[in-house]
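Appendix B. Extra example for self-study. Work through it before the problem class; the solution is given directly after the inputs so you can check yourself.
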Amino acid sequence: MSFEIPHNSITALVGPNGAGKSTLMRACIGFERPDAGRLLIFGTDPMQDRVAAVNATGYVPQASALYRNLSIGDHLAMARAARPSFDRAYATRRIRDAGLSEGRTVGGLSGGEKAQVSLALALGTRAPLLLLDEPLANLDPLARRDFLTTLVEDIRERGAAAILSSHIVTDVEQVCDWVMILVDGRVTLHGTVVSARETHTTVSAGGLGGRATVGTFAGPGGEALALVSDGGPGRPSSLEEIVLGHLAAARTNRAALQ
Amino acid sequence: MIDTVRVTLKQYRLEVALATVGAMAVVLLWVYLQARLAGIVVPDSCIGSAQPSADPVCGPSINALRPAVAAIGDQILEVMRIVPFAAGLLTGVSIVARELETGTAQTAWSLNGSRRRWLARQAVIVAAPMLLAVGAAALAAESVESLRQASLGGPAVLNVGQYGAPAIIRAASTFGLGMLLGALLGRSASALALGAMLCFVLYLGLGVARDQWLAQQPSEPIPDGVTTSITTGFAYRTPQGTTVAEADAMALVPPDVAAQDDGQVQPVASATWLEAQGYVLVPLGVSQQTAMGWVGYDMLTFGLIGMLSLGATVLVIDRRRPT
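Solution. Structure tokens for the complete assembly:
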């Protein structure tokens, strides 16, 4: 795979379970060694210079990786000690904006509140690249909205870049500028959300008339739909439909290979 | 910096508290012993003298020490067999293992560019109070060992590692070993169990090595009343005052006398004959001073284990995938 992440953008990283999304994120921060190829974070190979790579990134792991017995304030103090550039005042503001107080112990927080603390830690690093590994997975709709609002505000304010992996395409569609679909460790689509929408249309699978499809999938009412990218007639695809079409194509290809 | 120390100690408060409580229990026992001994004044010249209890000046006070030293002092030294190992392992294992098993290593290592600096900071902050507590216990045990030597006697080398600097080095060394096992296994309970087994094997192994080393040291006749030497065998003092090996003395026994000892466990007849000729059986042994040369080897062994473990931990965490 080969891709670049532009500044001042949020890239949605989507793909089925086991596609390699988390591995890709973790490789960016030096937690995993790529089997092959080369990964550069602002020109630095994380396996060669992990310090530089880590200092250039803010990371929100997939599951809550906070210290249960420590308070939110303790986490911020720890982050400040770990990274001298950590902007504690900014992180504190984010915590306060999320309706939390620094004195609360992490063990007593809800999933959404923990996610906000993780995000505040990542944002407080003021790193030019944020890596968010399925942070929305266990959040209720309101908590997801709060999380994404905070993220977008920060990225737009600083002109930073973020990669956000998620299964919830309808949510990321509202905030992401770029989309990257990852299947079996391969990038099957990478581009702006706008261009993806412009180049894909959705049609009823029954009325294809021999047109080549990207993939076919079931619509919300169970009807068979097809994603096409031939510039022909059809209704504009939503990002969810584009993702579904590509994932369906990958599944078909895998089945054919087997 | 204060914030860092506070937060780190808060993370490991249970382990640090347990290690400190264990060591402080020794100090409290020592305070209790001192209270029991209050009023018994032992002249400084009696401490370390060869036969204090037989000395008319030292005897009364030294003999008065015995019951309390035997009852409480020996308990302190027994507890100190375990405290340095337990305190070191308990605190060392948690440094990396708990981060890995709870997933917090992802947060710690994504915020800290240098995992080595992270490890150094955590290790210093957690080890410092543990070593201070073990140090206090080791000093208390050293004072007990001096009292024990003065009142009860017995070879001090058998208690090496249970008092003074060697005990502190044992704690530091097992702290390093604990960190390594925690980093390798990523599970606190397994690392603790394996660490405890390794420490036990190490303890037994060093005991065997110490005995072999002592056996290689030059033996000399042990003066009457001296109980601090390690007995390694026996010899005979001739009527002329020279010392000959037991076998050489036995060779002088007439065959008809020696024949009476055939099939006996102890050559009683031969010994009786030799005594009748003016020969005196004397114990041979390694003096306290020579035997205590083992202290250096004990500290060197644990020092090396600690340093190698620390180095290996650095290598392991550099390659470890945080889970």
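Self-check: The longest helix of chain A spans residues 239-257. If your reasoning did not lead you there, revisit section 3.
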